[in-house]
Every structure is written in C-alpha cells, then in structure tokens.
C-alpha cells in the first residue's frame, strides 16, 4: 500500500485550487492517514496562464480534460468543472472508459446522468464518489450511506442552498424586499452566473435528488422533484410567518410514502425554535430520520474553497484507503425505479390572503375550507388602513390536492383581492 | 463477496438486543447494501433464560464470551458488555488473538487500553471499530476519521453525556436544585449504576479521549483529561449565567496547542444562541473544527437501543463492505504520544462571588484581578437582602494559572463570604 495514489484534477476554480492546496500543505498528514502518498500528476483548466495563487509547476498540464482523464499516470480523475453536458460529461465518461476512479462535485451531472454513469463505472469495477456535490463540507453522503447503513431511512430534509438561505434570512433581518436582497446578493457574487439555479431551487433540487437515491435505494430522478423557488416569497410572508412562530426556508424533503417517493424542494415554514428554523445565512443543514437512530442533524458550510475541497479529499482518502463503495451506496443495477408521488404526505399549511371589508367575507372562506375537509388550527386578521384586511390561516393537516381545490374555490368568491399564498408547514 | 459476514454478539442488554433486531428486520436491506448477507452465528450474555423480547433460537449460545470470541463461525466479534477489565477485555483480546475483527461500544475499555488493543489487532491485520462508543447514534468517528480526513483538526468539542445535559437543562427549566434533579434522574433510570460515571464526567471524558486520538493522531490518553463533574453547579450559577446570555454545559474540549494536547471535560459557559447553548435534554452534540472545512456540527441521540445499535451496525457494514480502517484512523504504531497541556488556551471566565457590604470591597477585588493581569469585560452586582451582595464578573481572556492566583488572593481579603465560583466561557 505504499504506491502513491495519483490524481488528475480538471477544473482549477475555487474548489480545484482548494484541493491542490490540501494535497500540497498536508502531504505528510495525508500519507500517514492513508498509508500511502497522495500526489497530483496532472491538471487541466480553461486558461493555463491565469494566476491561481498556487504552484502548479510540478504537474503536467492538459488543455483537454478528456486527455487528462485518460492519462496513464492518473488513478483518480477529479472533475470540478461543473455543467451537466459538454466537457464535464465527456471527460467523466472517458475516465470511466479508461478504468479510472472518479471524484466529482458535479451535482447537476449526477442528478441527470448519475444512473448511467454509475452503471458504466461499476461494470468496470470502478467508483464514482460525490460527497462534495451535496451540502459542501458536510459529510452527509458518508453519514447516510455508511454511518446509517443499518437503518431504513424515513425522511431526508435539508437547507442545501446557502444563497437562498442568505437571501431569506437577510430579508427578515433587514426588512428588505426579495428584489432588493436578490440584487445585493448578486452584487456580492453570492449567486451563480445563472441565478435561477440558486433562487429557482434547481441547484438544491439536484442535491436532493442525489440524497433521495442514496437514502431510499432508488434511481436518481431529478425530474420527479416538485420544484418551487423563493422568488415569490415576500417580506410580508416572512414577517407574518414569524408572527406565527415560523421561519421560511427553501427546504428539500424526500420521503418514501405508500404512494411512492416524494421529493420536494420548495419554500416551507419550520418552527422558529427548530435547528432548521435557527439556521442563519449561508450555512447548510441536513436532517436525517431513520428507524433505528431517530434524528441526526448535520450543520456546516455548504460551499466555498475549503469546505468543498475538504469533501473532495474525504472521497480521495476513502479511495486511497481501499474503500470502494458503490456510487449510490449499493450496486447501481440494484437501484429501484421509484414511482413519483406528488404531495403524498398531508401537512398543515400557512395561508395568507387579503379579504375585502364585506360582511360574511371570512365566513365564505371558512366555509370553502370546511367543504374541502380542511380544518383551521389558528387564524389572525390584522389591522388595515385600506379596504382589504390581511388574514393568516394555519390549517390542520391536509393534502395539497384538497388545498388546491379550496384555493380554486376562493377565486369564485368576490371577497378576496389578489391571489392567496399557501406555504407548507413541515414538521421538523 | 456473497460469503455471509458472521457476527458473534456478547452482551444482550439494550444495545445487543437492538443489534439483533436490526439484523433480523433488515436482512434484505443489509444484504443489498453490503453485497453479502449479514448473519448472527452466536450470542452470549449473563443469563440465558432472561426474556429479551427477541428470538435467539437460531443462534448458538455461549455462556462464556471468550469462547464466543474464538468461535470458528464468527468473523466479527461484537462486544457490548461494557467495563474496562474482566470479561470485556479478556474476550476482546481473545477475539484479536483468534484473528477476528471487533466492533465495540465500550468507551472505558478503549479509553484505557485502546492503544495496546489496536496495536495487537493491527499486527494481526484486523480492525477494531468503535462508532457506538462516542456520542451514540451520531456518526462522529466516521466524520472525523474519514469525512474530514483531508483536514488538520483544530478543535473538537462536545456535549456527550445526555444525563448531565438532562440534569442541567431540567434544573434551569424547573428552577430545581442539583440534588433534587439528580434524585429525579436517578429514579427515572437515567443514570449509570455508579452515577459518578455520568455526573463526574468520567463517561464523557472516555469519549473525549477517544475523539482526541482520532482527531490529532495521538495515543489515547484518558488520564490526561482535566476532569470536573457537574456536582458543584448550582441553580444560582445557571440563573445568573442565563442573565449574562449563557448556558452551562458539561463540555468536552480537545485541542492541540503549542504546549501540547489540551483535553478538558468540565462545566463551561456557552452562548445561549449557539447550537451548543440551544441543546436541550438528553441529546448529544459534537462540534468539529478543522482547517479546510471550518466548523461542522453534528447533533443526535447519544444513547438508547436504536441509536447505539445503529452505530454498531455502521461499523459492521463497513467491515462487510471490505473497508478496513485502522482503529484510530491511522496505524496505531504511528500515533504520537502527546504532551498533556493543562489549561494552555486562555479563555474568558465567569466569576460568581458574594461580597460583604463594606466600602471598597469591590475595588479590592478589582485590584487583585488587575494585578494578575486579568481585565474585566462585564460586571454586575445584584440586589440583596442580607449583608453580602452577589457579584458576577465576566473577564476578558486569561490563563487558568493567572485566574487561580487571583482566586487565592481573594481569600486573603476580608470582603468575601464563601468561595468564589469560576467557570470557563468557551468560544463556540
């Protein structure tokens, strides 16, 4: 076991540079822990001349990541370019074909092509590891697939997009509108080049789809994630949810139900006092619920050079130590295709609406809810200066289907202005 | 890899029965994940006739755990008896000598004899795994030795004794004295047969010593843990700490300093609003700080049938999957002997004292602190009905040595009644 493990790193952005720094500064520590040296053979990136604040002169340079992936002096191909098509996919496929192990931080690629890639790798007896793709520095893939391997997983939940959590907590703290904080976050460089990946929940949904697969032994199915971004969350929602004892979070939830696998990534209310409710700023949190262990909460940085590089190196060290876990925790060919269950699990909902100052307005709304079988837990009507009163309702548990019927009925009344807002309250 | 992995389980208390239940109820799931069946060959416990609410008829019975450990049909010896001498130690040594892998939940045994046992196992090419020995169901050994394997660990902290945390939070919630809550906890069966293991901090210190070893690559050294239990924490401390924005926790802290390895298990103040400060009841929490990843917080059940059995099974599954990590994350022979540094890291302190109603009383105290080089961050004097005023002081960072000198000086004044209380404030 004193043969060095030789890495080829494609992508020298923040994370790639972070990995190079760890390999350079902790060479002795890594060798002691792995029982063998960890070395970098070659690197690849778009621009060779860019100053990256790290010495790359000892490593071979490849302009083409596919060429890097095939090199004879590379044992582990580390893909840190991102993107679910193009160079990332081509090079990863080339690495698998060439019989390399793969470590990647690419959530989009695996959420969309993970099943095919894992099958291809496993046919060759090689592994794809992706700890860095989910919740940054938090070793959640390891906790789920290994630490909790004796459990039947019941539910996985998480705040897994730091930018969205930053926006939501900043709106509340500063009393600013979504648009104002969005612009602020964009200027601070907190958002992806395509901000919809963040605020539309897509990035977080990629992560959820990967967690679902390892939690439930199912083929990764990103298209089945019910997806709703944070763009429609208003400062009024945040304030009035707070008034009811809740925070609004972009929350991912995956659970196996009698009707199939439910995967949701959407704004949800969680209690103020819960660990998820108390999560501020860019930090990530994942909650794992399983039959034997109960509830485990993991909290840590969800992005950034050090945390993401730490996750990449955790995978590299596993490979160096001879641990060869299947990509999704069990052989890819044994993963089931799950039926997608949409909103299968009933939940209480928070409803916000504006009712006109008309006699009987509230009773019309209450009657519609009652007819739909939805009972009211709490209700508040707020003072108002104009002709419409803000009304908040917290329902008891109901299905989304029943709720949607009631919401449609609301439109047929003439007691409401604007469109009512409905946000699920997740029990945590 | 379709050869079954055959377990021998010694100790059929809560945890042992939990492991049997998981193996029985999740046979198919475990086989799918491990790629091979997990089966129980034989079990051992003190009483064969005791009703354990689980069917043991398919397994061979051994009265003697040493005989169990040596059986030809056992690949992994699971030691769940407890105790750092006697049957637990003898049988574990027998298992190692017979060339078995070992999984144990025995923190005392490993904290005291871990180095010798690990060296013996590794000489034979076998592993000892102990996830269940630290923080119950939280996969913290795995997170530290594997997930964070690319990091230099800076500090490890934790609330790792649920009974102590229950007592401290119950004292605050109910406004009860330590003695009253101790009795209550004892009657509820929350405490060990020897309660000093819990409230004296010994059990938690065993766990801390194990975490230190895997965090810093040092030989486990339980004797070097600075140990102070919760018996001297009063309801006044808890109330007045709360008034200053803090909670009192039995906190374990391990960090490598310029002067050596500091390991402390003692009551500490942590901010109300920190994850540690918000931890209620019997839940455990471990905080890992490392150079690349920053801070990771893990929270979960620290004890009980399901959680502890979950941790045991995590280790069993690693072995079943062919992952053979050294006991302490690197070969035992490469672990350094660390110099023990006592109270090497300066910290702010909370001081509580009662000063007599004499002119100049407070100035005498302030002068002693000043002469010792200790500056005052905040000070409060409370209303009082008798002749002595409760005074709280929060100092700026100071060494414990300087503080102890000042405390000794206090005794030479004649302005104080009783002995002052000093509790470290840990930055979290």
TrEMBL record, chains A, B:
<dbReference type="Pfam" id="PF03447">
    <property type="entry name" value="NAD_binding_3"/>
</dbReference>
<keyword id="KW-0521">NADP</keyword>
<dbReference type="InterPro" id="IPR016204">
    <property type="entry name" value="HDH"/>
</dbReference>
<comment type="pathway">
    <text>Amino-acid biosynthesis; L-methionine biosynthesis via de novo pathway; L-homoserine from L-aspartate: step 3/3.</text>
</comment>
<keyword id="KW-0791">Threonine biosynthesis</keyword>
<feature type="domain" description="ACT">
    <location>
        <begin position="350"/>
        <end position="424"/>
    </location>
</feature>
<keyword id="KW-0028">Amino-acid biosynthesis</keyword>
<comment type="similarity">
    <text>Belongs to the homoserine dehydrogenase family.</text>
</comment>
<dbReference type="GO" id="GO:0009088">
    <property type="term" value="P:threonine biosynthetic process"/>
</dbReference>
<dbReference type="InterPro" id="IPR005106">
    <property type="entry name" value="Asp/hSer_DH_NAD-bd"/>
</dbReference>
<dbReference type="GO" id="GO:0004412">
    <property type="term" value="F:homoserine dehydrogenase activity"/>
</dbReference>
<dbReference type="GO" id="GO:0050661">
    <property type="term" value="F:NADP binding"/>
</dbReference>
<dbReference type="InterPro" id="IPR045865">
    <property type="entry name" value="ACT-like_dom_sf"/>
</dbReference>
<keyword id="KW-0486">Methionine biosynthesis</keyword>
<protein>
    <recommendedName>
        <fullName>Homoserine dehydrogenase</fullName>
        <ecNumber>1.1.1.3</ecNumber>
    </recommendedName>
</protein>
<feature type="binding site">
    <location>
        <position position="192"/>
    </location>
    <ligand>
        <name>L-homoserine</name>
    </ligand>
</feature>
<feature type="active site" description="Proton donor">
    <location>
        <position position="207"/>
    </location>
</feature>
<keyword id="KW-0560">Oxidoreductase</keyword>
<dbReference type="Pfam" id="PF00742">
    <property type="entry name" value="Homoserine_dh"/>
</dbReference>
<feature type="binding site">
    <location>
        <position position="107"/>
    </location>
    <ligand>
        <name>NADPH</name>
    </ligand>
</feature>
<dbReference type="Pfam" id="PF01842">
    <property type="entry name" value="ACT"/>
</dbReference>
<dbReference type="InterPro" id="IPR036291">
    <property type="entry name" value="NAD(P)-bd_dom_sf"/>
</dbReference>
<dbReference type="InterPro" id="IPR001342">
    <property type="entry name" value="HDH_cat"/>
</dbReference>
<comment type="pathway">
    <text>Amino-acid biosynthesis; L-threonine biosynthesis; L-threonine from L-aspartate: step 3/5.</text>
</comment>
<dbReference type="GO" id="GO:0009086">
    <property type="term" value="P:methionine biosynthetic process"/>
</dbReference>
<dbReference type="InterPro" id="IPR002912">
    <property type="entry name" value="ACT_dom"/>
</dbReference>
């Amino acid at each position: 076991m004193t043969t060095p493990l030789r890495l080829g790193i494609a992508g020298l952005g923040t994370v790639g540079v972070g990995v190079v720094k760890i390999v350079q500064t902790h060479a002795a520590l890594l060798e002691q822990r792995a029982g063998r040296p960890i070395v970098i053979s070659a690197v690849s990136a778009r621009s060779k001349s860019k100053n990256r604040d790290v010495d790359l002169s000892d490593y071979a340079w490849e302009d083409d990541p596919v060429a890097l992936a095939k090199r004879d002096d590379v044992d582990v191909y580390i893909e840190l370019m991102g993107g679910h098509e193009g160079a990332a996919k081509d090079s990863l496929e080339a690495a698998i074909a060439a019989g390399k192990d793969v470590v990647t931080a690419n959530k989009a690629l695996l959420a969309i092509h993970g099943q095919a890639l894992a099958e291809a790798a496993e046919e060759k007896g090689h592994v794809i590891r992706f700890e860095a793709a989910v919740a940054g520095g938090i070793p959640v893939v390891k906790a789920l697939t290994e630490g909790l391997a004796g459990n039947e997983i019941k539910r996985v939940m998480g705040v897994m997009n730091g930018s969205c959590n930053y926006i939501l907590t900043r709106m509340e703290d500063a009393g600013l509108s979504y648009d104002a904080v969005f612009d602020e976050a964009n200027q601070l460089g907190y958002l992806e080049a395509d901000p919809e990946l963040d605020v539309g929940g897509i990035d977080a949904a990629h992560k959820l789809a990967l967690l679902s697969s390892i939690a439930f032994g199912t083929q990764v199915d990103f298209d089945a994630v019910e997806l709703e971004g944070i763009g429609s969350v208003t400062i009024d929602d945040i304030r009035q949810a707070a008034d009811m004892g809740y925070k609004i979070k972009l929350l991912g939830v995956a659970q196996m139900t009698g009707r199939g696998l439910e995967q949701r990534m959407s704004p949800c209310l969680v209690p103020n006092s819960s660990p998820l409710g108390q999560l501020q700023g860019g930090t990530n949190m994942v909650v794992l619920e399983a039959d034997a262990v109960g509830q485990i909460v993991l909290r840590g940085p969800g992005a950034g050079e050090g945390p993401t590089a730490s996750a990449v190196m955790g995978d590299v060290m596993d490979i160096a130590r001879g641990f060869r876990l299947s990509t999704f925790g069990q052989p890819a060919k044994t993963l089931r295709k799950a039926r997608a269950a949409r909103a299968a699990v009933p939940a209480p909902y928070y409803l916000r609406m504006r009712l006109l100052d008309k006699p009987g307005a509230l009773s019309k709304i209450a009657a519609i809810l009652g007819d739909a079988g939805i009972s009211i837990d709490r209700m508040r009507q707020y003072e108002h200066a104009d002709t419409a009163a803000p009304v908040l309702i917290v329902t008891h548990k109901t299905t989304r289907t029943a709720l949607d019927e009631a919401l449609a009925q609301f439109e047929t009344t003439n007691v409401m202005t604007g469109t009512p807002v409905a946000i699920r309250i997740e029990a945590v």
